[in-house]
Design goal:
This protein is mainly α. It contains 23 helices and two strands. The chain has helices at residues 3-20, 22-31, 36-56, 65-83, 85-90, 96-107, 123-138, 140-147, 156-162, 175-199, 204-215, 233-246, 250-257, 261-265, 268-291, 295-298, 301-316, 331-343, 356-374, 391-417, 422-433, 454-468, 472-482; strands at residues 383-384, 387-388. Strands 1-2 form a two-stranded antiparallel ribbon. A hairpin with a 2-residue loop joins strand 1 (383-384) and strand 2. Helix 20 packs across helix 21 (422-433). It starts with a helix and ends with a helix. Residues 155-159 have low confidence and may be disordered.
Amino acid sequence: MNWSLIIKVQGYLLLILGIMMTFPLMISFHYSGGDLGAIALSIAITLITGLAFIFIFKSDKKFKAKEGFASVSLGWILAALFGGLPYFFHGSFGPYINCVFEAMSGFTTTGSTILSDIESIPRGLLFWRSLTHWLGGMGIVLFTIAILPMFGIAPGQLYNAEVPGPTKDRLSPKIKDTAKILWLIYIGLTIIETIFLMFGGMDLYTAVNHSFATVATGGFSTLNTSVSGFNSVYIEIVITVFMFLAGVNFALHFYLIKGRFRDFLKDSELRFYTAVITITTILISLNIYFSSGIEKYTVNYGRALLDSAFQVVSITTTTGFMTADFNLWPSFSALLLVALMFFGGCAGSTGGGMKQIRILILFKHLYNEIKKLAHPRAFFSLRVGEEHVENHVVRNVLGFSILFVFIFAGSTLFLAGMGYDIITSFTAAISCLGNIGPGLARVGAIENFGFFDPYSKGVLIFCMLLGRLEIYSVLILIYSMIFRKR
C-alpha cells in the first residue's frame, strides 16, 4: 500500500475543500453573519493541512486498486473531519461529534441532522451544509479525477472506487473526460432547478440551497419544516421532478443530451425505477385517502396524491425532503416507505440505498432459482433488458446485499442495545446506511438525531460512510490498515 501517494491525494482533496469554504465565507460576509470568523479559521486550517500533505509526502504517481479504494474512503473521512470545523468553531452545533455527524451527513448526502432549530443558524453555515451535499453528491473525488492528470497522477482506480453501483458507464474513453461530462450535467441540472424555483417565489439564496440538496439527493433545507414550509404546490412539483431526475443514472442524461432517446427509454433499470415509484405512489395515496383520518387527505385526493408522490420520490432517491409528517400515516404506508429505503436510486446517480439495479438483479436471480427447482436440467440465463448479466456480477450483487443487511442488522442491534426503541433503531440504521435522512418514531420527518449518545452517533457516522462508498471501499481501507504487509 503506497501511503505516501494516498496522503498526497488527500492533500489535493483538502485544498479543494478549503477553496470551496470560501463560498460560505462570502455568504457570511454578505449577510454580516456571526459565522465569518469560524469559517475563515476553518479555511486556514484546511488549506495549511492540505499543502503540508502535498509537499511533505512524495509518491511514484502509480495507483493500484487498493490505493484507489483507500484514497476514496480516507478522503470522505477527512472531508467530514475538516468539513465539521466551521460548525465546531461557531459553537452552535454542540460537541465536535455533532459537527462531524452533520458534515458526514452532508458529504454522504444523507441529510440527517442534529439540529432542532435550523433557522437560527447563520446563513453562511447553512450554505456550507447545502454545499457539502452538492460536493458529496457527484463526489469530491470525482471532481479531483478531472484535475489530477494536471499533476501527473493517473486517476483510474479513484473512478472505480467512487462511482456507485455494480456497473460504471464511461461516457468517454478518458476517465477525466467522463468526470468532466458528469460534472457538467450535474451543474446544468442545478442551474435549471434554481431558475425554476426562483420562478416559484424563492430568493436566489434559498433556491440555490434547495437545488444543491435536490440534485445531490441530500435533503438539507434552510427551514425547520423542510419543503412544507413554502406551502407551494408549484415548488413541491418542481422539487419532485428534479429529485426523480437526480435518482436516474447520469449516463442516461448524457444519452438524452446526445439525442439517444432509444437508449434512454429502453434502459431496464430506469423502467424498474419508474414502476416502483409509480406503484408505491398510487398505493400510498389510496391508503392515506381512505384510511389516514387526516382531513386534508380524506377530502382532497389531489393533496394525498401529491404528498404521496413527493415522499415516495424523496425516500426512493434518498433525498429526505418532506412535505408531510409520514409518522402520522397508516402503518401500511409507513412500511412501504421503509421498504423503499432499501431500494435507493439508480446506479450512477447521486442517490444512495442498495440501488435499483441490484434489487432488479436479485429479483431476477430469485425467479431463475425458482425455475431451476421446477426444471433441474434446464439452463436459465439472467438478463436485464437485452444484456446478459455475468455470474461474477450476480455474485457481487449477492455479496453486497448480504453485507448491507448484515451491517444494517448489526447497527440496529447496537442502537437497540443502547436503549432506543426498535422502530427508532431500525429506521435510524437504514436511514444512515442508505443515506436517506429521516426515519420513523424519534427520527421521523419532523425530528432530528441530536438525542443520540456519542457512541451511537459514531456508529451512524460509520453507517453513512459505508452507505456512500458502498461498503467495499471502506472495508478495503480497514483491511489494508490491519494487514499492512499484504
